[in-house]
Design a protein that fits this description.
Blueprint (H helix, E strand, L loop, with lengths): L6 E3 L2 E3 L7 E2 L5 E2 L3 E5 L2 H9 L13 H12 L9 E6 L5 E12 L2 E8 L8 H13 L7 E7 L3 H9 L3 E5 L3 E5 L2
Parallel strand pairs: 8-9
Antiparallel strand pairs: 1-2, 3-4, 4-5, 5-6, 6-7, 7-8, 9-11, 10-11
Helix pairs in contact: 1-2, 3-4
Amino acid sequence: MPLSGPHRSERGPVVQHDQELHVSSSSDLTTDRLVLRPWTSAEVTAVLSGDRRPHWADDFPTEGDRVIAGFIAENPSALGAFGQRQIIERSTGLVAGAIGLFWPPGDGRVEFGYGVVESRRGRGYATEAARAIVAFALTAPGVEAVVATVELANPASARVLENAGLRRVEADAETARYTTV
């Protein structure tokens, strides 16, 4: 079923599609199988210092997660509701990746990025998380479109964006740009 426009409820934005999205008062985004939870400063510190946490998948963090943790350390506003989030499996409670918005939006557009650890790929988590973050971003004041850039050498990521409702609008020799509008 296609993604419909965001709808407001007393609990925050709720989107009707095959993966229900709910926003709790703690800024978590919850889908059927995932919780997208804002990073905490303790999680950032643990990733940057190489400390293992028991609630991480065995292959978390990846190099991309370390880059995001460094970005958050340099940009504390990325800890907010419209910033970076960890992707958590509801069934296990394990952190399986990260997704987030690069706030604030410019010209009505906000960019997002994501990554799922190898042990959890092929389960549809990236698409489910992308749908949720896109729907959430479109509820924010001033956001008219959500965009993402993917390397052409990563066709699986391009499929994630397409399955999340984005369409390809431009490309160069190495990357393609996708948008919701």
